[in-house]
Write a structure and sequence with these properties.
The protein is an all-alpha fold. About 60% of the residues lie in helices and about 0% in strands. The longest helix is centred in the C-terminal third of the chain and has 29 residues. The termini are far apart. The structure holds iron/sulfur cluster (2 copies). One iron/sulfur cluster (SF4) binds next to helix 6 and helix 7. One iron/sulfur cluster (SF4) binds next to helix 2 and helix 3.
Length: about 190
Amino acid sequence: MSNELSFSNEIANVMYATHGNPIKDCLQCGTCSGTCPAVEFMDHTPRAIIGLINAGYRDEVLASNTFWSCASCYHCTVRCPAGIDIADMMYALKRYSMWKGQHQEGLIGPVFAQSFVKMIVDSGRSFEPLLAPTYIFKHGPRGLVQEAQTATGLMLKGRLPLLPKKIKGLKKFQNMVRRIIPIGEPS
Ligand code: SF4
Ligand code: SF4
């Protein structure tokens, strides 16, 4: 018998770790899609993306913008009759996508997530000026002007340091993060 995990079980592992795979309990009722405020921005509805996961369509799922469009409102999670935490599944799909380095081109979500994870692993802290290039990348010169205005205002009020500070015990923190998921190797 093959020991290879199904795609559905891989996602469930990233999502629930020790609690089995509830994704397989999906009834395909469509309640999640009907309740989702972001569905019009998704190329596959939440119901469809779960169907694709359970059918093993890994490449189609990873090429979808659905989980990057999720607003994490949890409406689907509280209404799902099968008790599936769909919002958390969307997070699991993002983590899986980052881990495998596979995502739809041209989306800001994966670029932003990569920048954020690298920044957190390198310093243990969030430092907004390092995230600004992601926004500028998406919005061009208009984004640059907006970011510069916002950053100057925050610095003048002492709300934004000029340089990122690193946390104490950074090595331990980095080892902990690498145990959770093999992304964000420190430079
Ligand atoms: S609401 Fe739950 S059971 Fe219904 S399609 Fe969505 S995930 Fe499946
Ligand atoms: S958590 Fe995401 S998928 Fe679920 S209803 Fe909200 S936006 Fe839609």
